[in-house]
Amino acid sequence: MPYNTRMELNLHIIAEDLAVAGHAVVRRIREDASVRRLRFPALFDGEDTKRSLLYIVEAGLLTPENLTHITEDTSLLVIGETPAALKKLPVNLIQLPSHTQLSKLFSEVTDLFGTYELWDNALKHALIAKRHLRRLGEVSSAIFKRPIYLVDSYLQMVFAVVDTDLYELPEGYRYPVIDNNNPSLAAYALDRFQPDTYTQREPFLLPEVYGYRTLSQNVFIDGHLVATVSVDEVGGSSSRAFTERDFALIAVFAEYLVSGMTYLEEWNSSAPRLVSEQMQLLLDGKLSTSEDTDAALKMMAWLVDDAYYCIVAVPRSNVYPSGLLAATAKHVSAQLSHAVYLIHKGRMVFAVNADHTKLSREETVELLVHALAKLEVHIGVSNIFNSFWMLGAQYHLALAAQELGAQETEAREMVGQGDVSPVPRTRELGDAASRPTPDPPAPRVHFFEEHFLDYLILKCKEATPLEAVIPRGVVQLKRYDEKYGTDYVQTLWVYLRHALRVAPAARELFLHRNTLTHKVAQIKFITRLDFENDPEVRLRTLIALRMMGC
């Protein structure tokens, strides 16, 4: 909800507040959300009406001529018997008895708008000050006069506001307690939610299980469910059931929560936020106390010495805002209960606990690829490691795999232009060959072990001139190719890559077996390297050829 607008009231709220104040209210409100938001009360003056105002008028002033100035979807508060002609118009009506005093009614309605404007200002102040979302619940307690809860998509309690100074609770009332150290204590909270409620966009009622019902509203960001706000049908208003006012208020309140969750990183989640703080320190190369790390992980029922691996999803361009990345990562983590995430320098970073799932690393990545199908990203995956303290180092390895893999992907995309040779080592999960090319491209996955040698070579190049580490024989072979136009370097690369097997190497090179055998003999003469009999020489030669770009 924009911060520069006044509080917009639903006409149901006004009608019910007037009824609570003692007025005999009769209403006919059309269910059109676009006309149910009102900013100010006004006295009807016979001019053309505006949809954003609530007009207060005595029935006797609604002459046939004045009715022509009442436009469609106008909201009217009529004192006295509503004219038949007005009832036929597509307008929203609240009718009060004829003995109601116009001046007093206008004052009461103005006070109502003022009450909700004060609530609006308190909510906006909490958002601008970036207060914890609990503060939004606290300033709303007097409006709802019922217990308020916000549970995030991890099924963890973000806040619970039960103000017994404002309303009484019935004996035996049960709080939806969630204890992250004891998942069994979340059972009551789980009772409140069923799978078919997760997609609800409008306020919905949960069935009466403990002697009262619960009114809930899901909170979505960028299409992803991130939390659910609920109020219980108990408190100062326990003598009456939920009404249209409650449905309208919780929808308005949810809009403020969306603003708060967009403003505050991690959306005030409890345990994931504490883990994220430790992740942030490790990714930034900073130190943290073992006590803090242990405490954060234990809230997830994790241990420092569990088996972990790191996944990094990097956008292929900078067009994705951080809010979209955060919402997407939140949605993914909600599906992967064994993973927590952090948005770090425009990247989605997931720390995955391999000991807390039956899914393999590849299966987990497969699910991640499916969840990120609408984003253009490269994904890097680290090796499995046995200490959460190693997350920072493994993050950089996953990031390196992503960078090296992205370079190879770009090279493969240029194959059709004849610029480079194909590089087949990047892994794409799923049956990509059996489905049409997605738009945007499906996320590419790069496992670090597949780029281990490239990584070593890269670090070697950064520290040492290339000529200093390549064997002399390989250098001589390269110079021979340059001088006489031969392709002995490429021939040696294919021959070694096929483990000295002549037949498959000849097929790849489109050569006869005897021709390849002759070329290998020439290569051995030029290089003076015994790569056929000495495994160490063969390994050094392979690494040297890779460093040269083969």
Tell me which CATH architecture of the largest domain applies here.
Answer: 2-Layer Sandwich
Strand order of the largest sheet: 2-7-6-5-4
Proportion in β-strands: 15-25%
Q: Write down the Rg.
A: 34 Å
Whole-Å distance between the termini?
A: 57 Å
Outline the biggest β-sheet.
5 strands, mixed
Helical fraction: 40-55%
CATH fold assignment of the largest domain: Alpha-Beta Plaits
Low-confidence stretches: 1-5, 179-190, 264-271, 415-438
- CATH top level assignment of the largest domain: Alpha Beta
Number of helices: 19
Spatial shape? elongated
- Please tally the β strands and state the result: 17
Q: Report the mean per-residue pLDDT as an integer.
A: 81
How would you describe what is shown here?
It is a single chain. The protein is an alpha+beta fold and about 550 residues long. It has four domains: about 10-105; about 130-265, Beta-Lactamase (2-Layer Sandwich), CATH 3.30.450.40; about 270-455, Alpha-Beta Plaits, CATH 3.30.70; about 465-545, PucR C-terminal helix-turn-helix domain (Arc Repressor Mutant, subunit A). Helices cover about 40% and strands about 15% of the residues. The protein has helices at about 10-20, 65, 85, 100-130, 135-145, 185-190, 245-265, 270-285, 290-300, 320-335, 360-370, 390-415, 450-465, 465-470, 470-485, 490-495, 500-510, 515-525, 535-545; strands at about 10, 25-30, 35-40, 40-45, 55-60, 75-80, 90-95, 150, 155-160, 205, 215-220, 225-230, 310-315, 340-345, 345-355, 375-380, 445. The strands form four sheets. The chain has a five-stranded mixed β-sheet with strand order 2-7-6-5-4, covered by helices on one side. A five-stranded antiparallel β-sheet has the order 9-8-12-11-10. Strands 14-15-13-16-17 form a five-stranded mixed β-sheet, with helices on both faces. Strand 10 (about 205) and strand 11 (about 215-220) form a beta hairpin. Mean pLDDT is about 80; it is low at about 1-5, about 180-190, about 265-270 and about 415-440.
